[in-house]
Amino acid sequence: MMTNNSNATPTFHVYEVAKELVRASRPLIDRIARRDRSLADQARRSAQSVMLNVREANRRAGRDRLHGFRIAAGSADELVGALDVAEVMGYVAGADLAAPLALADRVLAMLFRLANPRR
Q1: Do the Cβ atoms of 107 and 50 come closer than 8 Å?
Q2: What is the C-alpha to C-alpha distance for residues 119 and 103, in angstroms, rounded to an integer?
């Protein structure tokens, strides 16, 4: 969904990629839940936090906006960590992580640029 706020275009692009990340992670999180409900809950909350914090930061200004993007990046990295733990514990296969990890890397790169604008 696009907005009339023309300066939100880059942010909404990262939001759309974050949605892809959550969609790609969801089946893995469901699989993790069968073996480790606590880890699945943490992964799910991290995934949700990425999207929610991007949306919230988009409506903020100044340093508060940048801080929101940093929080979203922290949540994306936490999701990566949760998926890594799941792979190490044998809950998911490493090959199944390729798409979500690539999307997470893309989201993290985009959030870095949003949180660290050129001066």
Answers
A1: yes
A2: 27
Amino acid 119: pLDDT: 57
Mean pLDDT value of segment 44-49: 98
In CATH terms, the superfamily for domain 8-115 is 23S rRNA-intervening sequence (1.20.1440.60)
DSSP, residue by residue, 15-77? HHHHHHHHHHHHHHHHHHHHH-HHHHHHHHHHHHHHHHHHHHHHT--HHHHHHHHHHHHHHHH
pLDDT score recorded for residue 118? 82
pTM assigned to the model: 0.88
Q: Where are the domains of the chain?
A: 8-115
